């Protein structure tokens, strides 16, 4: 099929603009998931429920996000992806905005489930699009930025919730909903690449003005299962997500550690959120891990898998350490502003051995773990044709 376009549509600047919008949407997706786990001390009081109830709410939202991502991924392999992402963003943004105006746990639960349906679109549909912007030789490096944006989103959500949400949860919900709506508008003029846009085998096709117009259909699902690498990626994704899922509770873990040192709920929420945000520095290592994966894959087709395995297994002892180490002797100012608390936390990292141990082990654990995501993403793109990638990603992410 021959494609038609205006002079500027699909030019380099337009592609860069589109990638930026996609990356921000991916970060907002993870920021939304991180909100409630980082506001639990405040929500317990305002909603009159316990930590377990809020844990069930968060778990239900994550489950809905994961399950619906499979459906969104299949639709992304079959239909225009731009419209799917637009509708998904509008759904979760509206639900997040409405969450700011309820004091009922039941209503909040229902709204977060609706938000989860919309959030499911971002990862699967977004991955399908991003993979078409990236040439095979640089997939690991490029996917590291895609994965890093999700980590930054978690950091932003945690900071927003723990600082602005220490007194009231309304502001974080409204800010995030507003950001989602703004970027959904910016997305209206984004460039949707044709499937296989950067595949070397299809370069001559696109040079001639044609497009690769294959779509998935139910009869092809057996082909996806028949790919042995897909089966291993899904199995690894299942076990990995059990571990990664626990990381959304790091803000609460460290908030409770601060409260255990005698500080108030509000101060504990702020300081614990700052710790969780600073721990995320380790995720920057994913850029190097993606580059190493590209180089190793060029020499050995198992290269990406080796990088992921080394990172995940190497992180285990550091995770055990950072989960269990206490914050003994932590000294911060009760009721202080975020800037003052940030300075005191940084000082504690340099002067308090317990805090230094927690920080060091967390950064190393997250640095090693971050080796997995860019190489896992790249492997899915490597072993699947363009019209199958959204579906496989959705199942693997489940």
TrEMBL record:
Which residues belong to any copy of the Major facilitator superfamily (MFS) profile domain? 15-398
Name the InterPro entries on file.
MFS, MFS_dom, MFS_spinster-like, MFS_trans_sf
- One Pfam family name is MFS_1
Keywords of the record, alphabetical order, are:
Membrane, Transmembrane, Transmembrane helix, Transport
Location of the protein in the cell:
Membrane
The GO terms describing molecular function are: transmembrane transporter activity
Q: Does the keyword Nucleotide-binding apply?
A: no
Q: Any stretches that span the bilayer, and where are they?
A: 15-40, 52-72, 84-101, 107-129, 141-161, 173-191, 232-254, 274-293, 305-325, 345-368
What name has this protein been given in UniProt?
A: 4-hydroxybenzoate transporter
Native species: hydrothermal vent metagenome
């Amino acid at each position: 099929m021959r494609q038609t376009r205006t002079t500027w549509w699909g030019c380099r600047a337009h592609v860069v603009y589109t990638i930026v919008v996609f990356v921000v949407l991916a970060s907002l997706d993870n920021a939304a998931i991180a909100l409630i786990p980082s506001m639990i001390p405040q929500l317990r009081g305002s909603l009159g429920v316990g930590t377990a109830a809020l844990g069930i709410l968060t778990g239900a939202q994550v489950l809905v996000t994961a399950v619906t991502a499979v459906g969104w991924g299949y639709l992304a392999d079959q239909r225009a992806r731009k419209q799917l992402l637009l509708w998904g963003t509008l759904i979760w943004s509206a639900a997040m905005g409405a969450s700011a105006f309820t004091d009922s746990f039941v209503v909040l639960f229902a709204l977060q489930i609706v938000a989860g349906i919309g959030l499911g679109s971002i990862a699967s549909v977004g991955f399908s699009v991003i993979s078409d912007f990236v040439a095979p030789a640089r997939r690991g490096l490029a996917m590291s930025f895609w994965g890093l944006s999700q980590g930054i989103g978690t950091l932003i959500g945690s900071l927003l919730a723990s600082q602005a949400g220490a007194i009231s949860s309304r502001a974080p919900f409204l800010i995030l909903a507003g950001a989602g709506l703004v970027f959904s508008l910016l997305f209206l003029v984004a460039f949707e690449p044709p499937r296989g846009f950067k595949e070397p085998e299809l370069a001559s096709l696109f040079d001639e003005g044609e497009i690769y117009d294959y779509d998935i259909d139910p009869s092809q699902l057996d082909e996806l299962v028949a790919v042995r690498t897909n089966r291993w990626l899904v199995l690894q994704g299942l076990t990995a997500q059990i571990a990664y899922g626990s990381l959304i509770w790091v803000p609460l873990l460290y908030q409770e550690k601060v409260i255990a040192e005698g500080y108030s709920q509000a101060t504990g929420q702020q300081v614990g959120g700052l710790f969780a945000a600073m721990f995320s520095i380790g995720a920057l290592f994913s850029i190097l891990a993606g580059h190493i994966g590209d180089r190793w894959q060029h020499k050995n087709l198992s290269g990406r898998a080796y990088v992921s395995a080394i990172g995940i297994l190497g992180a285990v002892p550091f995770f055990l350490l950072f989960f269990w180490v206490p914050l003994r002797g932590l000294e911060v100012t009760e009721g202080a502003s975020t800037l003052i608390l940030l300075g005191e936390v940084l000082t504690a990292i340099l002067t308090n051995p317990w805090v230094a141990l927690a920080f060091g082990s967390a950064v190393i654990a997250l640095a090693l773990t971050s080796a997995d995501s860019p190489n896992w993403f790249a492997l899915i793109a490597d072993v699947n044709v363009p019209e199958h990638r959204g579906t496989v990603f959705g199942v693997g992410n489940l």
